[in-house]
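quick one, two chains, predict together pls
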Amino acid sequence: MISTTETALLSPTLPSPEARLADLFDAHHQRLYRLARRMCGHAEEAHDLVQECFLRAARHARRLPTSAQGAEAWLVRTLVNLCRDGYRRAEVRQRAEETVLRPDPRTTDDHTEERLVHRRTVRDALDSLDPKRRAIIVLHELEDQPMREVARLLGITPVTARWHLAKARRQLATVLQSPTSEIDS
Amino acid sequence: MTQRESNQDPSADRPVPRHELLRDQLRAGDPLAPGETMSSLPATRMRNAMLAEVRHTTPQRGWRLAAVAAALSVALGSAYLLRLSSDHPIPVNDGGVVAATGPSGSPSSTSDRADELNDRQIQFITRGGTRVIWLLKPKLDLEP
């Protein structure tokens, strides 16, 4: 009978790239989807972004950081960079706008319409931000991540992250035309 | 202070920080609908595409590494052989001298070749390494 210690010794030390990527996908795809959805605003584009992110991970499987936290940060940064690179498909965006933002008049009441307009306003405000600042806003304000964690995920110092947060808040307040337009850092 | 005033929540009068107002506004218009997740079908497709990509990429990388290793080995081997050959240079066939002293030369005619075979030579090397070869021609006539 083989003991647990012997089993551990017999098993390979490092998992294969396939197994490792499969684990990464299972652990992070939903979280990356939420981030992409909030970053780009459209479900189909978010799908494309997440898929491209994991395909890049597959192409550079041997260069992925070995630690779980490092790999997670690599995925988040890749996603943000994909947004920055202008990874957008105009037709997808157009189609999504038509389906999501044009409510069905039979089922729409004033409340729903108001909510849709507000969503559109927020999405436009987020779109006006630089992708890095957008990511900081999404991670901190919408996903409740502490700033230290946001900085780690984006590979920047906490001080820089806070500076970007303050700038992004001011910019958002201006765009949203709200009483918060005089937010100070 | 009255009893009624003391029972009031002290935080009720505290102004809400502006960044919290902004956060509330953002959350009210969150692009992600509550409870929205990636459904299982696209997730499975995406996972399979990723695994196919890693299977496709990994052997290519192995072949590339093998090719680079082979090219390096060939280059290093060639360099080693060239160095060996430069340490022991291949003798250059100096036609003029050899032809005058031995049968491997390129004689101009049969009679000349016979004469050259009868030549006697004296060879010596100076301290500086210069090799001196004297050819003693029996038919040499020094008289004017």
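Chain A has nine helices and no strands.
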